[in-house]
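Bumping my old thread because nobody answered last time. Still need a sequence for this structure:
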């Protein structure tokens, strides 16, 4: 019998029994033809690989992530994934959608079509995430219909505005959910429901949202699984308590591992979904169970029934690993052809960008250079001391808290530079109305200098945090002049600068180059006092008004739980 590829005697992972058997594997036309004891006596293969001593497992499947979080293009992203055994992803491009709307999503899909890794897209469902911010684009119901008609998408991406689902039956999010349930009843609907329990959780599930990928506790995990939710475990949820629950209970059909957001330097140095699986094994989860949570379980969730297992008829996406505990990757095959070999140099995978976005994607920052007046902390109060709301950053989470701090107002200006607080400001950068807002910030954030970025979830307006106006001006105007970027300034000097020319949020550099830029940003932010484990993700979510608790947009300070703009000044003391 003819075959294209025959692998001899690897330890083959069986996804259905979650166990290993030493078998021969025949592949034909990009799919598995046979798994069993028959070998060269039965199959005449064009290529035979002696895989004895190797572990053969399916290519990993990541069903919840945002390519833009790595700040690179789909092409560079695909190359990085292959180096880590990931062969299928379901990206949701809501960052690009916030900048360019439907066109942004379509361009990301176009940029993915020539990639080796399969990319099945999720429709950005919450663009903008709330009605309390200005974005460059939006995704409306008619846009979702247009995307579903392309055949390039397989699910409705994370529904983030859970506050409106619960409190406003007529809101846009509930209209979307109603439309999807009626028009596309079999469509998978993804969710973002941090900390919800009891009736609030039930209302969100009733509306059609039946998964959650946010930070989990054991209590929340139990509540979600018992209510029929599918849980997507990202690294920040891998606490000892949560992992012990997943290890001790028979819940393999109710969860999988995902990455969500991966910084470029972590991608290069630690890995991707394989790092999550490796960490689970190190925390005591059986390798067979950990692999299942990155292969068949996510495939079933997304109804990708042609992958996630090494079995006849399935797409021949697999990896050969020499050490199971460390997931020491030797090679990766995509549709039966070798796509990556550990013996090859990394640079051989770094091709020049083949896809160019439309010209206006490189001209998305429509802001004039800022002046000192733009950072004047003007308040409409008489002179005196006031209790003010302050965004408080805490290491270990992207959630922020609200603190109250006493500050003095003189001549209509808040005297923040004489306090322990920094200023946080945001500027609408799409040329729509020029809105801006400022607030105060403290905690595990910078203690001097300034940071400015056009990469700020999800609206991607210009966000600036600083302790003096001159450094804030330098960082902000550097980002503006180069049409997007992430800049760190101290004492009148740029300490780190990552140019993000595509929509103000992506670089066309290869992964390794982008990783070095991100590493320099991270080090610069730590050097000026940022104490967070992931300062880039932390600061870029200060403008995310669906992530608890106090955030900022061009509308002002946002109390996330109430879904309202709240004043900076609370009361006079």
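Sorry it took so long. Here it is:
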């Amino acid at each position: 019998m003819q075959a294209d590829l025959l692998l001899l005697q690897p330890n083959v992972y069986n996804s259905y029994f979650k166990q290993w058997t030493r078998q021969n594997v025949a592949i034909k036309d990009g799919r598995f033809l046979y798994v069993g004891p028959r070998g060269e006596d039965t199959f005449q293969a064009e290529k035979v690989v002696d895989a004895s001593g190797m572990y053969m497992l399916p290519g990993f499947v990541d069903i919840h992530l945002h390519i833009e979080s790595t700040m690179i293009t789909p092409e560079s992203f695909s190359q990085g994934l292959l180096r880590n055994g990931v062969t299928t992803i379901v990206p949701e491009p809501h960052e690009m959608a916030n900048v360019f709307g439907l066109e942004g999503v379509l361009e990301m899909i176009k940029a993915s079509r020539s990639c080796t890794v399969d990319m099945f897209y999720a429709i950005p469902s919450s663009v903008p995430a709330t009605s309390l911010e200005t974005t460059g684009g939006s995704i409306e119901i008619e846009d979702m219909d247009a995307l579903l008609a392309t055949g390039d998408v397989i699910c409705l991406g994370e529904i983030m505005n859970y506050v409106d689902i619960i409190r406003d039956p007529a809101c846009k999010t509930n209209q979307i959910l109603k439309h999807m349930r009626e028009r596309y009843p079999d469509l998978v609907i993804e969710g973002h429901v941090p900390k919800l329990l009891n009736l609030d959780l039930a209302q969100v599930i009733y509306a059609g949202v039946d998964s959650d990928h946010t930070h989990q506790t054991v209590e929340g995990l139990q509540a979600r699984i018992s209510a029929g939710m599918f849980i997507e475990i990202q690294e920040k949820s891998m606490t000892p308590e949560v992992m012990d629950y997943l290890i001790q209970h028979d819940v393999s059909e109710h969860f999988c591992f995902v990455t969500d957001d991966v910084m470029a330097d972590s991608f290069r140095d630690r890995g991707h979904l394989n790092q999550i699986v490796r960490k689970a094994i190190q925390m005591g989860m059986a390798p067979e169970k950990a692999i299942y949570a990155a292969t068949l379980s996510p495939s079933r969730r997304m109804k990708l029934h042609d992958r996630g297992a090494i079995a006849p008829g399935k797409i021949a996406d697999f990896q050969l690993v020499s050490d199971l505990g460390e997931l020491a990757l030797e090679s990766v095959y995509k549709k039966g052809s070798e796509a990556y070999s550990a013996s090859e140099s990394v640079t051989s995978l770094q091709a020049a960008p083949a896809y160019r976005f439309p010209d206006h994607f490189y001209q998305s920052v429509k802001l004039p250079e800022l002046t000192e007046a733009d950072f004047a902390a003007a308040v409409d109060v008489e002179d005196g001391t006031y209790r003010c709301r302050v965004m408080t950053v805490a290491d270990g989470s992207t959630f922020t808290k609200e603190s109250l701090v006493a500050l003095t107002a003189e001549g209509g200006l808040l005297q923040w530079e004489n306090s322990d607080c920094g200023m946080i400001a945001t500027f609408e950068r799409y040329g729509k109305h020029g809105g801006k807002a400022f607030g105060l910030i403290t905690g595990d954030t910078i203690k001097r200098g300034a940071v400015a970025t056009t990469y700020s979830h999800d609206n991607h307006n210009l966000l600036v945090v600083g302790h003096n106006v001159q450094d804030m001006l330098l960082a902000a105007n550097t980002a503006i002049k180069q049409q997007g970027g992430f800049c760190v300034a101290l004492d009148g000097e740029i300490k780190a600068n990552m140019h993000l020319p595509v929509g103000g949020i992506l670089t066309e550099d290869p992964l390794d180059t982008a990783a070095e830029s991100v590493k320099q940003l991270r080090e610069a932010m730590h050097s000026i006092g940022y104490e967070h484990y992931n300062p880039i993700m932390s600061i870029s979510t200060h403008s995310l008004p669906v992530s608890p608790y106090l955030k900022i947009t061009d509308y002002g300070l946002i109390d996330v739980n109430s879904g309202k703009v709240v004043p900076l000044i609370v009361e006079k003391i």
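Residues 511-527 form the longest helix (17 residues). Let me know if any region looks off to you.
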